[in-house]
Design goal:
Layout: E1 2-7, H1 13-28, E2 33-38, H2 50-58, H3 75-78, E3 81-84, H4 87-96, H5 100-104, E4 106-108, H6 126-144
Parallel strand pairs: 1-2, 1-3, 3-4
Helix pairs in contact: 1-6
């Protein structure tokens, strides 16, 4: 299983999802792969936002070595599941799909069509966003086993 987490800049939400999921996958010894990318290219090769790194560290996860990547069409072939944080990401990623098979790989990260709030402009949102992402990653592991 290869999972890609996607948000806008790949510095807040998707790095948290990647780091949490990787940690949980390793704990469960599942052998899956996880990565993250952004639909925008502004932060390529930069580390996660310092606030994402800090909140992850506070809960026992290390995302400090992750670097931002830009989503590209080849990722449809590289990953089994592409989980996006909000509807804008969903539209942006699906716009690049060239087949129905590729479009079917793309889903919102949260259930029931909910979106993960972008905490970039409000530092107070990082912890609630982290907790939401962590809970969903635990659910995903149970769903995908």
């Amino acid at each position: 299983m290869k999972i890609l987490m996607v948000c806008l800049g790949n510095i807040c939400r998707s790095p948290l999802a990647e780091g949490v999921m990787r940690h949980l996958i390793n704990e469960e010894r599942l052998g899956w792969e996880v990565a993250s990318a952004g639909t925008g290219d502004w932060h390529v090769n930069q580390p996660a936002d310092r606030r994402s790194i800090a909140v992850a560290k506070n809960f026992g996860y290390d995302i400090s070595k992750q670097r931002a990547k830009h989503f590209n069409k080849q990722m449809f072939d590289e990953f089994d599941s592409i989980l996006v944080m909000d509807r804008n990401n969903l539209k942006d990623v699906q716009r690049l799909a060239t087949s129905e098979e590729q479009r079917k790989k793309v889903k919102l990260f949260l259930t029931d069509e909910n979106e993960v709030t972008d905490p970039y402009f409000d530092s107070n949102l990082f912890e609630p966003v982290f907790l939401e992402i962590e809970a969903r990653c635990k659910q995903l592991i149970e769903e995908l086993r």
